[in-house]
Amino acid sequence: MPFSLDHTVFFGRTWEESTGMYGLSEEGMRGKRILDCPGGPDAMVIEGINRGLDIVACDPQYSQTPEQLEALGLKEISETMISFQKDPNVAADQKQADAYEKLKLAALSSFLEAFRGHPDRFITGSLPSLPFEDDTFDLSLSGHLLFVYSSLEQGGLMSHDELDLDFHIAAVRELVRVSRQVRIFPTWSVNKPPRRQAYVEPVMEAMAAEGHEVSLLPSQWVEMEYKEFNDFVCITKAS
């Protein structure tokens, strides 16, 4: 039975992972109003605050208490990694998998610090309908939801097709509505053989048809063994 998921898991990324994924530098983020969506248990907010950046996160799970989110994060990191390593087609070298899990736990710890200390930076909401006005943000970052949580047949992780192409286009359109620029990572298929995830080109074509500037830019972060198609979609809103 190939590795798959029936829901989006509460996984997060460290500051180094996140900035690398989107090809960002601290200096390049300064002075911008930034959205992390879905934020999950990312370390972006607390690390951004520590660097004097203006950043908020949005996720449907933020209606829960810190204690509930800590329990959820620990459970999903453990269970997902065990399931992932059981499938020989996707399993990583154990040392590599342990290092990856350590990063997830570090991100969760940083997230909980921020969630407890800066609750105003965490907004409950979900794609494709966000609780923000048009052009609220200069930059929206969206990682490890779009493309990743498509169905197995489309190169994603899901055992069903709930997040289909229509959802993807609606979600990206919503991110563009609230932000002047959107960056989405990753764009590769998470199951073999290595290839571009099936919805990437249709989403890019849809955004270009609406007049936006769309491109694929190289990521500065290599996640586990995903070295091919290691880039992100960058959409700059039409003026």
Short description:
With 239 residues, this protein is an alpha/beta fold.
What this model shows, in words?
By secondary structure, the chain is an alpha/beta fold. The protein has one domain (15-236): Vaccinia Virus protein VP39 (Rossmann fold), CATH 3.40.50.150. It is 36% helix and 16% strand. It is built from seven helices and seven strands. The chain has helices spanning 15-21, 26-29, 44-50, 66-86, 94-117, 165-178, 200-209, and strands spanning 33-36, 54-59, 122-124, 137-143, 179-185, 213-218, 231-236. The chain has a seven-stranded mixed sheet with strand order 3-2-1-4-5-7-6, sandwiched between helices. Helix 6 links the parallel strand 4 (137-143) and strand 5. Helix 3 packs across helix 5. The protein is globular. The mean pLDDT is 92.
- Helices and strands, in order, run as HHEHEHHEEHEHEE
**Separation of the first and last Cα atoms:** 48 Å
Strand order of the largest sheet: 3-2-1-4-5-7-6
- The structural domain count equals 1
- Determine the number of helices (DSSP H or I, runs of at least 4 residues): 7
Q: What percent of residues adopt helix (DSSP H or I)?
A: 25-40%
Write down the CATH topology.
Rossmann fold
Rg, Cα atoms, Å:
17 Å
Largest sheet: 7 strands, mixed
Mean of all residue-level pLDDT scores: 92
CATH superfamily: Vaccinia Virus protein VP39
| E-strand count | 7
Second rung of CATH, namely the architecture: 3-Layer(aba) Sandwich
| CATH class wording | Alpha Beta
Low-pLDDT runs of 5+ residues are none
Structural class by secondary-structure content: alpha/beta
- DSSP strand content: 15-25%
**Which descriptor suits the 3D outline?**
globular
